[in-house]
Amino acid sequence: MGRRFFQHGELPLVVLTLLADRPMHGYEVMSELARLFGPRYRPSPGSVYPAVDALEAEGLIDGEAQDGRTTYRASAAGAAALAERADALAALEVRTGTRVRREESLEPTLARFRARLAPLSGRVDPDAVAALLDRAAAEIESLDRLATQERTR
């Protein structure tokens, strides 16, 4: 038997993340999982719906029945749980090579960055890393200056 794609607790975390981005019904969640992780992972009702049910039972998502289907969205408690589990989500994104979150801020990118570099602590020269990060920060700041110039034109 093959190795499981998601590690313990990751599928509910991904489902919660998707529902924090936008409300969806169960079939939409399955389609989004297939889009993000296919063909390496094929979602099934037997795995996705129990994850949805567990999230709802914990109060992390709310469901609203309409026209024979239930649309789910992350609750305030779900948003707080996502903030607490940002590092776990970043580690999953690094492991799978898939960005689950919509990125309107740099926080998810920085969390993935930390997840990638944490295992290297003590194995690389900290001064060399600091110099590299200072150069990267300067380049990112130049992106901001260019974007500002474009907006003012």
Sum up the structure in keywords.
single chain, 153 residues, mainly alpha, Arc Repressor Mutant, subunit A, 2 domains, 3-stranded antiparallel sheet, 62% helix
Would you write up a description of this structure?
By secondary structure, the protein is mainly alpha-helical. It has two domains: 10-121, Orthogonal Bundle (Arc Repressor Mutant, subunit A), CATH 1.10.10; 122-153. It has helices at 10-21, 26-37, 45-57, 76-84, 86-96, 107-117, 126-152, and strands at residues 24-25, 61-66, 69-74. The chain has a three-stranded antiparallel sheet. Helix 1 (10-21) crosses helix 3 (45-57). The longest helix is centred in the C-terminal third of the chain and has 27 residues, at 126-152. The protein starts with 9 loop residues before the first helix and ends with a helix.
